[in-house]
Amino acid sequence: MERGALHGLRIADFSRVLAGPYATMLLADLGADVVKVERPGTGDETRQWRPPADEHGTSTYFLGVNRNKRSVALDLSAEADRERARALVAESDVLLENFRPGTMERLGLGYEDLKARHPGLVYCSISGFGAGEGAAIPGYDLLVQAVGGLMSVTGEPDGEPMKAGVALVDVITGLHAALGIMAALRHRETTGRGQRVEVNLLSSLLSAMVNQASAYAVAGVVPGRMGNAHPSIAPYETFPTADRPLALAVGNDAQFAALAAVLGRPELADDVRFRTNPERVAHRAELRKALGERLCTAGADHWSAALLAAGVPAGPVNSLDEAFAFAGRLGLPGVVTVPGTDARQVAGPFALSESPTRYHLPPPALGEHTAEVFGEPE
């Protein structure tokens, strides 16, 4: 079995739910030894977040972000287990936690407590709203999508604000945490010193709002909801067809000319309202009407095939099972099985030629590896 690019790196993972566990799973996929510290009896809250569940009754939510990890059960309110936690940290390169700010300090496991003893430790803290004025605000993804502006630009113009269909802010924050950890480890390679890495859900969302956030920061524009349309590109949205919606992502004038030709309306590319992208954005309603009249004459799969053949980005709005099937047709991994087990997992996103993603441990049972990690008899 390939060792993985991060072989030899140990991570003491005090996180739970999604942002932290997603970050450590990505690092574990790349070869890191991740030891997940959980509360005895209940463990990570997401163990109870069901339905749905697998055939053994385990929450699929928990299973989705905790592969390739070992679990130890420690009661951090007890000094004996806090001492075991400190022993684990002493043998680790990275500590990641997402307790409410101040919790780890109260437990004697804060950054300043550990830095003096372990100057090479990379200590990553994930919070909802930072460790300052926002420290007391609970960091839940839905709340951050609301107060962070994402819901204000999601949904139909005349409808209510909507959240994304997945806890997207948690996922983005997990990615930021993993990147910050890797940057800190690179710094440690050259200086020998660890450091604290802090990420929070609100800052991660504001960064991830990219063009929408930049519109406000640079031009003072406060964007609103546009359904599936794009504020700066047209046509870049979904259209009804004879059977189901079709997504068109036309990014330049050449693609628009090809679209017009496939639809049998080549004259649209020379129409003064539609010749350039700014003109198409200015005349979005007329453009949508002209394209919709043609797209409704055939199904989404027909148009998708014809448009892709002409170099126009287009595709049907798939359900999740159709999305996995589509990935399979493209030769991309979708669902993988952990070798030697029946544990099915969503494939990792990395493709490294020399140190590929590894799947060697199914998501652990609560406390499954306590004795193994601490060298104690079972």
From TrEMBL:
InterPro entries: CoA-transferase_III_domain, CoA-Trfase_fam_III, CoA-Trfase_III_dom3_sf, CoA-Trfase_III_dom_1_sf. The keyword Cytoplasm does not apply. Residues 358-378 are annotated as: Disordered. Pfam families: CoA_transf_3 (PF02515). Keywords: Transferase. PANTHER family: SUCCINATE--HYDROXYMETHYLGLUTARATE COA-TRANSFERASE. This is Formyl-CoA transferase. It comes from the Bacteria. GO terms for molecular function: CoA-transferase activity.
